[in-house]
Automatic annotation (TrEMBL):
One of its GO terms (molecular function) is transferase activity. This is Cellulose biosynthesis protein CelD. The lineage of its organism: Bacteria, Bacillati, Actinomycetota, Actinomycetes, Kitasatosporales. InterPro entries: Acyl_CoA_acyltransferase (IPR016181), BioF2-like_GNAT_dom (IPR038740). Gene3D superfamilies: 3.40.630.30. Residues 156-296 form the BioF2-like acetyltransferase domain. The keyword Transferase applies. The keyword Electron transport does not apply. Keywords: Transferase. It comes from Streptomyces griseoviridis.
Amino acid sequence: MDVTIHRFDELSDALRDAWHRAMDESPEYANPFLAPEFASGVARHRAGARFAVLRADGEPVGFLPYERNALGVGRAIGLGLSDCQALVHRPGVTWDARELLRACGLSLFEFDHLVEEQRPFAPQVTGRFASPVVDLKPDESGYPQWLRGAYPGLAKTTLKKERRLGRDIGAFRFVFDERDPRMLRTLMRWKSAQYRRTGRMDRFARPWIVDLVDDLFEVREEHFTGVLSVLYAGDRPVAAHFGPRSRTVLAAWFTAYDPELHYYSPGLMMHLRTAEAAGRHGVTTMDLGRGDKEYKDWLKTRELRVGEGFVSRPHPVSAAHRLWRGPVRGLRNTVNAHPALREPADRLLKTVGTLRTSHPLTPGGADHGTP
């Protein structure tokens, strides 16, 4: 297997088409986070972004996007933002993990949402986690009928709250593909406040992430489209979601709502409305992303498995990185896996968030993984 390394300004139309073909030929790689458009978007804001091309008989058959620092430590492209990671390849392609790292000039490659199918990386996976998804089918009967059929336990309460919201605030309205950039800024403002309120790291305090989301909002391609969905009551935005979609997969990414209207459960309304509309627009899977959340248990129809870990070559830098990152990840995973630990930790973070809101100069909190 021949491996070449490229900057993203070297991603030709021919290579992009070959990357898309690899996505199309394996359903495991249909996720929009695996598309070259997402990787290229990250690369515009991350100087160390590169991609490896694997060739068989001169033909490109595999693609690995990654970020590399000055010490040769690599990480999946958009690590901490991406909910799906993989070496995207055509069926039957295999590789040697350490030889691949050597070709990329990496001593280590870190990932946290690796597609389960990636067998050459499997020996280096330190943990496997559920990633809930919703299987969707087109239904032209209308949202109330779809909701009663898909989620009978949620339907009565949700529809009642939607009617109440319409009476109290204004006529209820949902837009699946909102193109008004002002609504994207509203979503970011709500999400930023939510991060601070709950003691999490505020992603939108990082200018490069704001710019990345702005860029992805403008992308409208077959294998990657930035979709902004908004719930309105009258002219007032109530809740919003922004996430990428491919031809068949919509990734749930950033969801937030007007906190003044929390009584109406607008976040749940947003997920349900988005799922129903996505099915009508050709999406067959809504990926909710790794993480234990009550609403995911309510909505999921099945679970995928994603891996976390470090592929490494014998090297002092890789050993030091594992010693530093391994215990941090292990502690976080232990807390998240046990409700008796997770719930007190969430309460502590919310207390910190309250203090930070009261005292804006308080330093930011820790990253919490998937938004």
